[in-house]
Amino acid sequence: MAKRVLVTGLMMLADFPRFRGLMAEKGIEAVEVPVKQFLTEPDLIPIMGEFDGWVAGDDRVTPAVLKAALPRLKVIAKWGTGVDSFDLPAAKAVGVPVYNAPGAFQHAVSEVALGYMLDVSRYLSSTDRAVRAGRWPKPCGGGLYKKTVGIVGFGAIGRGVAERAAGFGTTILAYDPMQPPAPDYVTYAGLPELLAQSDFVVLCCNMTQDNVHLINAGTLQQMKPGAILVNVGRGGLVDEPALIAALQSGHLGGAGLDVFEAEPLPADSPLRGFDNVVLGSHNANNQQAAIEAVHVRTLECLYQGLGLEPKTHTPVTDLVKG
Ligand SMILES: NC(=O)c1ccc[n+]([C@@H]2O[C@H](COP(=O)([O-])OP(=O)(O)OC[C@H]3O[C@@H](n4cnc5c(N)ncnc54)[C@H](O)[C@@H]3O)[C@@H](O)[C@H]2O)c1
Ligand SMILES: O=C(O)[C@H](O)COP(=O)(O)O
């Protein structure tokens, strides 16, 4: 009997006929669902029992969804890096391995982080808007040279930001409880010290239960007056009302945000109203080479989880303690 695989990962759905064809060559029937930002229990529970595998996006993988998927589901291949919307201990407990693509967006996302730093600190987008509107402004920006960059989360993306920022003549601080190996030009610091000294604070960490609203009214107050906040990690790292207040008061010099607490960013979000905020659409990962590599990796993980290829990748559920 052909194996059936549910595909909800948005990037794979965007090119679905191609992936349906590739999976068919492996004897897999790939099934798409109507495109939605992410799926929740009411979408998933009624259908989950019919699949051997799942190429998932940022869907809410809860114990109830996993229960509905058993006994048939053998593997979840998350398209991408972040698995914060998955209950990994629950998946491990029921024996469904979850694979992801760790570090796959190092270059793609760190390029965009530097883009936000340059844009906000040199008024590129706001000048573009002004010139299009018939004005000819001459804002004087701080730029990057001789500035201090504080990187919060020194994993793959954090390291990519450091490598690039170093080329702009910056001093680089990093905060990461795991303290991964770092180049000589990076100095680890505590979070308060990093916030107090940095002209740019760049959030590159994964989202966990412990770092929800890591950047809040209190930690924003610890940032240097005029500093710029960049978030390419996850929206939930930042308390948005507190960020909005810090922008309104002028305490922050600006922000570059690829990710938000609610995505797509609500039409009435006050963040849309600041000239010194550059907004993205959770698209920092969307760079051709990275996307193609993640397509390949995701299919490899899917095939390995279905027993169609020898195992070479380690499921992220294997890293869950207990
Ligand atoms: N904007 C995008 O398009 C995009 C694309 C890819 C990944 N991401 C997000 O970026 C995250 C990081 O990706 P990565 O490949 O660098 O992952 P990674 O696992 O290599 O690095 C994450 C690092 O963050 C650290 N960390 C966790 N909690 C922290 C905290 N409270 N303070 C400081 N550091 C903390 C971890 O110890 C780890 O070293 C992903 O988990 C994902 O959520 C966003
Ligand atoms: O975590 C990731 O890999 C990136 O944020 C983009 O992918 P996602 O939005 O599918 O998680």
TrEMBL record:
The keyword Cell inner membrane appears for this protein: no
Primary enzyme class: oxidoreductase
Enzyme Commission identifier(s): 1.1.1.95
InterPro entries noted in UniProt: D-isomer_2-hydroxyacid_DH, D-isomer_DH_CS, D-isomer_DH_CS1, D-isomer_DH_NAD-bd, NAD(P)-bd_dom_sf
Superkingdom of origin: Bacteria
Xref: Gene3D superfamilies: NAD(P)-binding Rossmann-like Domain
Coiled-coil spans in chain: none
Entry protein name: D-3-phosphoglycerate dehydrogenase
Origin organism lineage: Bacteria, Pseudomonadati, Pseudomonadota, Alphaproteobacteria, Hyphomicrobiales
